[in-house]
Design a protein that fits this description.
Elements (H helix, E strand, L loop, with lengths): L2 H22 L3 H6 L3 H13 L4 H21 L3 H23 L11 H6 L6 H32 L8 H36 L1
Helix pairs in contact: 1-5, 5-7, 7-8
C-alpha cells in the first residue's frame, strides 16, 4: 500500500476519532461517578424491566450525564471530581493533538494530511503543528503525574502506582519528545526546501 492510500485512511481515522473524542467529553463526569460499567448496564436493565421505553431510558441517561457535572461538586465527591477533571483535561489535549492532523500552518493552508497527499509534507506549518502536539503530550504527562501523586495521598497506599494513570506519564512524555524531534526535522527540511527554491 502506497503512502497516499495510507494517508487517506489515516485522515479518515483521525476525523472519526476527533468527533468521538468531542462526543465523549460531556459524559466524563457521569462516567467518573460510576463504580464500573456494570452499574450503568444494570441500571438500564432495571429500567427495561420496569417497562420503560427506549426514549425514556435515553432521556434518563442524558439527564444523568449532564447533571453529574453539578452533582459531583454539590455532593463533594472528591474522587469523581479529580477523575472527571483529569479525563476532561486529557480529552481536550487529545482533541488539540488530533486537530493538528486536520490543519496546516500559515494563511488558509490545506490540512496536514492533505499536505502529505500533495507531497508537500515539509512545511513550517506542519512543524508548528507537531510542536503544538508535543506541548499537549507534555501537559497530559504532567496531569497524569499530578493525579498519581494525589492518588497516593488520597488512598494512603501505593495502589495508584499500578494503574493506567501512571502509564500515561512516560508514554505521553516520550510521545512529546518524539513530536519535538519530528517538528525540528520537518522545520529543518522546510528551511532547506525554501533555500533550494530561492536558488532555483
Amino acid at each position: 500500500m502506497d503512502a497516499e492510500k495510507l494517508a487517506r485512511i489515516l485522515k479518515r481515522l483521525v476525523s472519526i476519532t476527533f468527533v468521538c473524542n468531542l462526543l465523549v467529553l460531556p459524559l466524563l463526569a457521569g462516567l467518573a461517578r460510576l463504580k464500573g460499567m456494570g452499574e450503568l448496564t444494570g441500571g438500564i436493565s432495571c429500567f427495561f424491566e420496569q417497562g420503560e421505553g427506549v426514549g425514556q431510558i435515553l432521556l434518563r441517561l442524558v439527564g444523568y450525564f449532564l447533571t453529574s457535572w453539578g452533582e459531583i461538586w454539590l455532593f463533594e465527591e472528591r474522587y469523581a471530581q479529580v477523575l472527571a477533571l483529569f479525563l476532561f483535561f486529557c480529552g481536550v489535549c487529545t482533541a488539540v493533538i488530533l486537530w493538528q492532523g486536520r490543519r496546516g500552518g500559515g494563511h488558509r493552508p490545506p490540512p496536514h494530511m492533505d499536505t502529505v497527499l500533495r507531497g508537500a509534507t515539509f512545511t513550517r506549518g506542519n512543524a508548528a503543528n507537531m510542536g503544538r502536539a508535543a506541548v499537549c503530550c507534555f501537559l497530559i504527562s504532567g496531569a497524569a503525574l499530578l493525579r498519581t501523586v494525589w492518588g497516593l495521598f488520597h488512598d494512603g497506599s501505593i495502589g495508584p502506582l499500578f494503574t493506567y494513570n501512571t502509564l500515561f506519564i512516560p508514554v505521553f512524555f516520550m510521545a512529546g519528545l518524539l513530536c519535538l524531534i519530528l517538528s525540528a526535522l520537518v522545520r529543518q527540511a522546510a528551511e532547506l526546501k525554501e533555500e533550494n527554491d530561492l536558488t532555483i
